[in-house]
Amino acid sequence: MEDFISSLTVRLSPASKVLHDKTTSEFKSSLARWSDIDVRVPYAVVQPAGEQDIVSTVREAVKAGIPFVPAAGGHSPWSTIGQDGIIIDLSSYKGISLHPETNEATVKGGTLMKEMEVAFHPHKRFAGTCGNGNTVGVIPYYLGGGISIYTPLIGFGSGNLIAAKLVNAKGELVDVSDTENSELLWAIRGAGQFFGLVTEITIKTYPYSLLGNEAGQRICGTYIFLPHQIDEVCAAVEKVIQNDQYASAGHFMVMQAPPELKQQVLFVAPQVFCSSDEAAKLFQPLIDVGPLQQATMPSTFDKHTGQLDWVCAKGDFKRFTQNGLPDWNRDNIKKLAQLYLELVENCPDAVRSAYNVEWHSPRKSQGGSETAFGHGSVDYWLNVLSWYTDAKNHDYVDAMDKKAQATTRAGTNEADFVSYTNTSRDDPLEYRYKGTKRIAKLKALKAKHDPTGVFTEQLL
Ligand SMILES: Cc1cc2nc3c(=O)[nH]c(=O)nc-3n(C[C@H](O)[C@H](O)[C@H](O)COP(=O)(O)OP(=O)(O)OC[C@H]3O[C@@H](n4cnc5c(N)ncnc54)[C@H](O)[C@@H]3O)c2cc1C
To answer: How far is the CA of 193 from the centre of ligand 1 (A)?
Structure first.
């Protein structure tokens, strides 16, 4: 390994870094991740400064048989590796260019969500971005699906990915588009992390006018209710979902209240693209239930991923999983709320967890099926955020996480289970990629492009 690091270091441009002295603060801080679950210490962290540096790192690692993982925002459990391998940390290779002639944008390496929003805002254009995910990496989000509040308007991230540059399992940089390596374009739209290291993507952008206003404005309501109000709250949320006049998305969360309320609450955050007056009318059913606290916040696109930016804090033990749901099922949601109460009662240090059902409306039920992702018809997602601090609670919180997933799947045929590819790799392939043809095609492409599993053993 030492020889590999020495020979790699001389190949990289001077602005690149190879961190391998574990006692330095630079090495230690490069390992800070969204979650400390199963965090490992690699032999080295390579921070390439340019595209050619990335290519050289992959090529040399492949040649020497050194395992590696790419890392962008570090929110997943898969961008960490132990002593036998290296992390290719893309945080020093970033950039966004908007091409006015096509209104497409190129996003490089380790660019984060917030950075993309801020870059697009002056041009009055938007694209799919993560909810509450300021520091999530743009490229992984697009490669593995990309669920956003804009989904009712523009579909999922993967369907908006139109080209890429990718370092393949031989360490070659290849162009991927409709006309070059088009089978890889299909594959990276939903399973991208298993086919290569993507140095840049080209994505569609849309004018703010599609949001119904020139300011790029979204109105986000926040309403806090007590658990015993759950039936009325569900009924009010259903009215918001059923409106088909304005595109809306939102979260129905069971979580711990702000400190002054000292208990669990139902937190409803509908988000809609219309004027404040129109939003007020739309949200009226929620106000009629009598929330303990309420607010409506207009914000422009450059701030949309920051609604709950504390969720992006690094450290502690956290896990985030998303499962597609066939419908809004009030009975299952009520059981989910009960489970949350059980979690916090038995495990007080998990109070920052949240069990959350996300909706997208009006129902689209279309789009995205031609990509590897293929979940274009899913309009409801269970989002389980587990967040705790005591390592002895790993098993208990994990079991509750699984119970929450099982609860919201009750009544659904197993053949229709949907696990989000960007947050689940342990669930059966049949949950993550729908249809035998899609799975067979993915496996055949993996066997052709990465037969030895340089980019994980997934699909082999
Ligand atoms: C707080 C929070 C909010 C979220 N909100 C949403 C949401 O609203 N919608 C949604 O769809 N998802 C959401 N997610 C899930 C998120 O999209 C995925 O976890 C995403 O993969 C994280 O990307 P990252 O860059 O932060 O993570 P990383 O761990 O750095 O990367 C994720 C995976 O991609 C690989 N990878 C990184 N860069 C590259 C590259 N250039 N080429 C190939 N592979 C690469 C890594 O090795 C790893 O396997 C959220 C996650 C969190 C924790």
So the answer is: 10
Best residue among 79, 184, 305, 358 to mutate for probing ligand 1, ranked by most atoms within 8 Å of CB:
79
**CA 207, CA 113: separation in Å to the nearest integer?**
18
Domains in the chain (CATH in brackets) are 2-91 (3.30.43.10), 92-209 (3.30.465.10), 216-419 (3.40.462.20)
Q: Which residue has the tokens 């926040």?
A: 222
Q: Is 145 in the pocket of ligand 1 (CB under 6 A)?
A: yes
CB atoms closer than 10 angstroms to residue 28: 12
- Cα–Cα distances (Å) from 98 to 128, 156, 180, 200, 203, in that order, read 15, 20, 22, 13, 10
Distance from C-alpha of 197 to C-alpha of 218, rounded to nearest angstrom? 34
Instruction: Specify the ligand 1 atom closest to the Cα of 112.
Output: 25
What are the phi and psi torsion angles at 318 (to 5°)?
-140, 150
**How many whole angstroms from 315 Cα to the centroid of ligand 1?**
16
What are the 10-residue block averages of pLDDT along the chain, 460 residues in total?
95 97 96 95 98 98 98 97 98 97 97 96 92 92 94 91 97 98 97 98 95 88 94 96 87 80 85 89 96 91 81 94 96 95 91 94 60 92 96 97 97 97 96 97 98 98
- Name the amino acid, one letter, at 195: F
